[in-house]
User: What shape does this take?
Amino acid sequence: MGGICLPQHFCLGNNIKVRKNKPKFRSELRWYNWALLIGNLIFVGLHILQTQVYYDGLAQDVPEITALGSVALMLMIVLALEAPRRGLFFGKKIRFDRRFIKLIREYHGYLFSWAIIYTFWYHPTEGTIGHLAGFFYMFMLFGQSILIFNRAHVNRWWTLTLEILGIPHGVLVAINQTGSAWRMFGLDLEQFL
Assistant: This one.
């Protein structure tokens, strides 16, 4: 379980350091983008190694609802970020307080980095279709976090692609779940009953 602490601290520290400098969005990759790329590659390798040696994802130590909850929280923030531009329900614009939108625009990176890393380390690196689709999606989300203050980070086609690609992963996991696929859509709440 301790393996998750290294990437969490690395990404948090990098994000804090970068935000202190208040950089503008640019097209080229800067030192912190490269640092995040190299760091994330190292930590992905460590998680693969950890799974091969111990078969230890966080799933053994924490409730499933924590991984599902981290993803759900991230998705709710994405909806709030995009609501002023494209609406929340079938294009219907929802007005959030400007201070709220400013707050989540400024600090969503911390939450997203935590959620992505937590979810990645929650799962052991298995070769099932659901895991492979999930890891492909996770790597795309890692890519998004690496592109901090890069113009690609806010490219609308790229961000829409990221939003949509979560769907095939969820469907593949549900289809391949033996006997209780419905639980994936109920956030496994029956474990608390």
